[in-house]
Each structure stands twice: as C-alpha cells, then as structure tokens.
Amino acid sequence: MDNQIMQDLVGKSKTKKVFEEVSVNRLKLKNRLVRSATWEGLGMPDGSLPEEVFEIYEELAKGGVGAIITGFTSVSADDFYFNGMMRLCSDDLIPQYKRLTDIIHKQNCPVIAQLALGAYYRVCEGEAYRQIEPDGMTADEIRQVVGIFGEAARRAKDAGFDGVQIHAAHFFFLSRFISPAVNHRNDVYGGSTENRSRILTEALQEIRRNAPGLHVTVKINSSDFTHGGLTSEESLKICRMLADVGIDSIEVSGNGTSVGGIRAHVNEAYFKEFAARLAETVSVPVILVGGLRSVEEMESVLNDTKIELLSLSRPLLREPDLPLKLESGESTESQCVSCNACYSSRAHKCVFRR
Ligand SMILES: Cc1cc2nc3c(=O)[nH]c(=O)nc-3n(C[C@H](O)[C@H](O)[C@H](O)COP(=O)(O)O)c2cc1C
Ligand code: SF4
Question: Which of 8, 31, 63, 309 could crosslink 321 through cysteines, CB 3.0-4.6 Å?
Fold first, then answer.
C-alpha cells in the first residue's frame, strides 16, 4: 500500500482523548487541558508575590489541569500597563518564583510563564514615564525590548519554569507592534509582514539563546478584529514564520478575547475555525483557547481537527478542579456562564464562588 495512504489511515484511526498523557516539544502533560494565562492582579509593584498567589496556583495544580500558563508576567520594571502584574524583571525575584514552580510541580503539572510587555514606557525630558507606541521607538529601543524578553526567560528558567509564552495577543505591546493598524514604521521593523513580525522572531531567538531547553510558545491574535488590523490571513503567515524559526506551540486567541454569553453545546470554541486552519498548515502543536465548555465539544475539536491542546481560563476560575470532575465523570461541562464579572472582582475570583 502507498505509504501516504497508510499514514492517513493510521492517523484517522487514532482517536485523541482529552484525558490522555501527551508530549509536546519538551513538555509532558497528564492530559490535554491547559490553564490559559489569567491575570490575578495580585503582583506587587516590584513583581513580588503575596501569599494568596501561591494558594491560587496550588489549588489550580491540585485540580488536575495538564499544564498551567501564569497570568501575564511583565519583562520590565517600567511597565505600568496594568496593576498587579507579576514580573520577572530582576534576579532578586527568582527565589519567589522558584517557590511557585515547586508548588505546582508537586502536583505533576508543568508551568509556563507568560512573558509580556503591556506597553513600552520612556522617561521624557522634564516628565515622568510616558507610554511610547511602536512608531515612536528607536531601533535601539526595540532591540532592548527583545533583550529584556531574553533576560526574563533566563530568570524563568532559573526559577524552574518548564517554558515561557510570548504574549503577542490582545493588543499588548507585541500584538500592537505586529498590527498594521498600529505599526507604520518604514525601517526593518515595519511595513511588510516579515518586518512587523521581526520583533517576534528576534524575541524567540533571544529566548533560545538565554534559556535553552525551555518550551517556547506564543499566544497570538487570529485576527485583531479591528479596522486595518491583523487579518486572519496575515496571522496565519506570521504563525508559519514562527513555526519556521522553531516555536514549540502556538495558542490561538484574538482581540475581544473573553467573549460573553458562551453556553455549552450552543456557541463554544469561537476561535476553532482559525485554529483548525492553522493546525493544517503548521507542524507545531496548536492550542485552542476561547469558550471551551463541554467535554463533548473538546473531543470534537480534538478529533475533527489537528488541534493538540485545549486551553481554559474562566472555567478554571469558576471550578479550579474542573479537570478532575470531567475526568471522573462527575461533570460533563463547565458551570461558567461567561458573564465576565471576574474581570472586576478582587483577585479576579469567580463571583459565583464562595
Ligand atoms: C480575569 C481574566 C484575566 C485574564 N488574563 C489574561 C492574561 O494574563 N493573559 C492572557 O493572554 N489572557 C488573559 N485572559 C484571557 C484568557 O486567557 C482567555 O484567552 C479568554 O478568557 C478566553 O478563554 P475562556 O473562554 O476559557 O475564558 C484573561 C481572562 C480573564 C477572564
Ligand atoms: S465570574 Fe465566574 S461565571 Fe462569570 S465569567 Fe467569570 S468565571 Fe465565569
């Protein structure tokens, strides 16, 4: 029999399950569920962590999820984009983050630091810090940003993280940088798709140089859903470029990330179509996030597409032990009603939890 037909038949007959062990580029997960990055807003201004953060992550890891991605963790001390960001901006913080990874590892759960820059800030003459958009930055400043992603990754490795995620979604700095709606530069960092996304390939290479052996993933917009912004065609192209330079996995999201009013069996998995197309065109594992609520939908995503991992944020705010409940059959779907009230609650706790 023709080799290709044989491979197709073997591929088709293998059913992917939510609850099975899986290895993806240097990561071993006990199941295919990933906690998508979720900002708790509890980091101190210098990046240090209060006791509550350790408790939240311990509860999550005990709940049976296959891997955890931390809330956005700034690579810079001078990033004032959101309050309560975690930070990996100084070597002094390494012991605290090591304590965090040790707690999570005790539950046989790998952990990835989501490395982010909310915005770039510069001290302007006679002023305090001012937010500078990509068009106003010098090429040297851009290279400095690439450098601090590398340094943060080295700290993540020293702190015991299994990987890092480059946050290039949701109009955070890197997401704005690659967007034609925001970046109008006419040097090597602007203009063509290749030039706008150069900052991502350089950050990836810098991370590899500084922290060899880590799983390096990216979270990216499938579309900016903004007039003149990144389209799905261009996002696919950028993802292929990242695959060519060795990204280990790609998590697909989009602006307007936490869509409201999602119901199990009704309107789940709102970035599925794009993620499925991406998974057809790259050989790196694709992670789908956004509105996954029922085991039935999760299994259909896994088996109707080449998507490898499923990522959850709000369902794990509502029920940190949802993976255990789904695996045991105690439950078949999340109780999260996608009201988004957690965005304004203290520590971003689900308002339905006592
Ligand atoms: C309270 C809250 C905080 C979030 N923080 C982050 C974050 O730090 N980084 C990020 O990439 N996405 C963040 N998100 C978006 C989620 O990771 C996820 O992409 C989105 O909520 C859709 O998935 P879901 O339907 O499983 O919630 C956050 C979402 C919520 C509700
Ligand atoms: S408050 Fe609770 S139910 Fe509402 S979206 Fe957040 S996690 Fe889901």
Answer: 63
Whether 22 is covered by a domain: the verdict is no
- Residues with Cβ within 8 Å of 16's Cβ and at least 6 positions away in sequence, in order, are 32, 299, 302, 303, 308
Please give the distance, rounded to the nearest whole angstrom, from the Cα atom of residue 212 to the centre of ligand 1: 28
Ligand 2 in reach of 342 Cβ (< 6 A):
yes
State in Å: Cα 259 to ligand 2 middle. Answer: 11
pLDDT value at residue 334:
97
**pTM passes above 0.90:** yes
Residue 230: closest CA among 206, 253, 205, 246? 253
**Ligand 1 centroid – CA 1 distance (Å):** 47
Domain region containing 232:
27-348
Tell me what pLDDT residue 126 has. 75
Q: How many other β-carbons are positioned within 10 Å of the β-carbon of residue 107?
A: 18
Tell me the sheet residues that pair with 120: 132
Ligand 1 binding pocket (C-beta < 6 A) is 36-39, 71-72, 114, 167, 169-170, 219, 253, 257-258, 289-292, 312-315, 342-343, 348
Residues in the chain: 354
**Residue 304 lies inside a defined structural domain of this protein:** yes
Let me know if residue 285 belongs to a domain.
Answer: yes
CATH number at residue 115: 3.20.20.70
Whether 15 is in a domain gets the answer no
Positions of the chain with pLDDT lower than 50, given as ranges? 1
CA of 286 to the centre of ligand 2 (A): 25
- Are 47 and 88 contacting, i.e. CB atoms less than 8 angstroms apart? yes
Beta-strand (E) ranges in the chain? 22-24, 27-29, 33-35, 67-69, 73-74, 86-87, 111-116, 120-123, 129-132, 163-168, 215-221, 249-253, 286-289, 309-312
Count of the separate structural domains present in the chain: 1
